[in-house]
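General statements about sequence and structure are easier to judge against a single worked case. In the encoding step, the backbone of a single protein was reduced to a row of integers, each denoting a local shape. The record that follows shows the chain in one-letter code together with its fold in token form.
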Amino acid sequence: MTEAGAYRQIPGGVTAARGFSASGVPAGLKKDGKLDLALIYSEAPASAAGVYTTNLVKAAPLELTRRRVAAGTARAVIINAGNANACTGERGLTDAAAMARAAASSLGISEEEVLVASTGVIGVPLPVEKIAAAAPKAAASLSKENHTLASRAIMTTDLVPKEYAVQVHIKRSVVTIGGMAKGSGMIHPNMATMLCFITTDAAIGSEALQTALKKAVDRSFNMITVDGDTSTNDMVLALANGQAGNPEIKTDTEDYRLFYEGLLEVCTALAKMIARDGEGATRLIEVNVTGAPTKQDARLAARSVVGSNLFKAAVFGKDANWGRILCALGYSGATFDPTRADIFIGDVQVARNGGAVEFDEERATEMLNQDPVTVFVDLKSGAYSATAWGCDLTYDYVRINGSYRT
């Protein structure tokens, strides 16, 4: 366990919070009997919040879930991998609703209390009959211990499951916030090919939860990139069932600040796991920008550098080509004076005032061989800062995406 600020990391992922259980089972959507159906369940009705992809093309499960989250409460989430149920027309909406019905029937709850998510290949009808057949097994397998099985069941090209949880002391109560995520390719700011499910036993209303979630997503999942693509199914969902027994958290209070810090920690940890597990990636990249005239300028600058394919390829090759960093800053849309920018790769300064400076190439190569690779940029044009995360661009990225559908 680790401690930082007002929160403490604990094991348990999406089932760490009181009253939540999860499962992961094979439904036959993937080959070779792999896990491909996950279920998350709350013993009590929970406040619900969600943030969704900005892509104009939105998958059927996302459309259904967004409507149900707007009602304010939910009890369960059913998630399948292997098929995105996207660009499937009216049938897609019918199949998404059928997924929810199958889960609701197996759990003995109302269909309207079930949220739905899917990930996988686009444009292929969902074999919903397989999900309906597997839903009773998923419900029967629910437990506190099956959080990792659930996180594995939502993976597509991910190499590792992604889960994280923290505890926060609020008044005299201990509030737990946990979650799981998937994502490896088609990752870019403003939501990417990623799903994230966060659970908490905090007592907090849906409006306050929505406010906290959107702010946390902006600082975490919207600050990662792998390849510049944004998909059709992406969402972050949060459920809060109130079983911690704390006084209800209201916005603009100290309780809210403490809760938000814990939520941001969970979102940031999961976001960095996604970036580190980028398709074909060998190293995480972290870009820290300081000295920007506005917060937005700092965000634009950091995201531009971490998203530069040229710089990502240079990291893979351990080439301290700082010109690619300055170039990415220049087209980022951020306002700054290029003749004042300083750039560091790890502890090696590679540019000063927007120009060349002598540096130790061997030491810079060592810094580029670290994981994570850290880049520091001081624009010396203001007081704002931001951090973004990504990964290197490798030969394996092309190999994976050259045959993704087949």
Residues 188 and 225 are 4 Å apart (CA to CA). The chain has a mean pLDDT of 92. The longest helix spans residues 254-276. The chain has eleven helices and 16 strands.
